[in-house]
Known about the structure:
about 250 residues; DNA-binding; homodimer; Arc Repressor Mutant, subunit A; Jelly Rolls; four-stranded antiparallel β-sheet; alpha+beta; 11 strands; disordered C terminus
Amino acid sequence: xxxxxxxxxxxxxxxxxxxxxxxxxxxxxxxxxxxxxxxxxxxxxxxxxxxxxxxxxxxxxxxxxxxxxxxxxxxxxxxxxxxxxxxxxxxxxxxxxxxxxxxxxxxxxxxxxxxxxxxxxxxxxxxxxxxxxxxxxxxxxxxxxxxxxxxxxxxxxxxxxxxxxxxxxxxxxxxxxxxxxxxxxxxxxxxxxxxxxxxxxxxxxxxxxxxxxxxxxxxxxxxxxxxxxxxxxxxxxxxxxxxxxx
Amino acid sequence: xxxxxxxxxxxxxxxxxxxxxxxxxxxxxxxxxxxxxxxxxxxxxxxxxxxxxxxxxxxxxxxxxxxxxxxxxxxxxxxxxxxxxxxxxxxxxxxxxxxxxxxxxxxxxxxxxxxxxxxxxxxxxxxxxxxxxxxxxxxxxxxxxxxxxxxxxxxxxxxxxxxxxxxxxxxxxxxxxxxxxxxxxxxxxxxxxxxxxxxxxxxxxxxxxxxxxxxxxxxxxxxxxxxxxxxxxxxxxxxxxxxxxx
DNA sequence: CGCAGAATTGATACATCTCAAGCTGGGTGG
DNA sequence: CCACCCAGCTTGAGATGTATCAATTCTGCG
Lengths: 246, 246
């Protein structure tokens, strides 16, 4: 079931080498990381960790998408993080997972054994500094997300999410968001609902509405075309400028 | 108007010494911080910084409460952070403020000139390590907040907020939340609404409802008594256990 | 082919927002 | 000392956006 090919890539030609927690490392530091790392693969839909589980590793997403979700006793779910390639999973110094981690697409993670990684955090400032930087970025993202959850309408939420995915997708292909954008939704309607604090029916309705109004084009359920990115951003209700990094 | 007494306390008897960004510093490191720091006071209601403003300092909250808020073009506001004594303001490496910072009570901050502080971040791992730890805590808080914003009902939101404030207040007095708790709300109804993603009318109604149902007691608009903390936590809808640190 | 999971659509219920009118308490000036 | 004033708050009535419940309709796949 779980296709766990334990391939062992060299850090040198790692696709996330320049963005992940190891981005700043010198070759000798990389060598240390190399010794404590191992790869793991998960299939789309698989749970990586359950909230509360003991965690004996921290990790970087190498490819694919994972989500962090929190659940209330009665089953209400809220996604609280979306992990893309190069994003970091886990918290040094914490024994158990605080959130459910799920693979929404096929996923490959570069895992570091926790104890030795924590040791490196102390002895190798470059790792700690990079992790701080990444954590601050995540905090900013979380706060933008809070604005979305607290104050945006369903339509604005959908438009915002599509914008985020479109931008991310464009950045992976190194194209600037300009003219028509085309991408595949990596999330089901239900996952989008969990992300946005909506029900899947409302997500579906709003996507239909945006399609009806020509803001987006759909080819099947997942293949999306954005004819006019600025138009989409208007619908997202965001602060004027097209979402330049703050 | 602005009572800016530029008192200069010694770090040694600073009330937030053991919890702030300087918590791990040795005496020689403290001495360096001492040289680049200065105090600033703000009155309740005053704006500390506007989003987009140039920031030439980072700071720790010494006493009082500040809030971080984000605003949509049409004026919808969402609070995205609540800064209590020992919390950190600003982001090393960033030139301008990303959020509006407002003093909701009288506020004293210990400010560090930005450039020298950034230098210390590189040379003094203890500062960077502590800041990482604090940022990870903030990220956790933000994610719990996201669950509240996305999935909780108005009544649950109010109960959750009261619980947070009650716990914080109790921790400042070093009493465990048990039996009746009494405290003053540091926020107006409108600020509570901005925190919770509600309107102030809804906040008011839900507070009235909780009062009617005996979950809380009100003495005036601000003075709150919680006769049964567990009851309040039930109303907050949170994951079973009374909110033990995860 | 036909099934199962995913998505759409419809009808209705309900929570929260919106607009509007009073209330309350503490401060101020006559 | 009282009257009034004003910001902060409460309460009401109605509008509205989203959730809920319930059918269908897609779509990919064995």
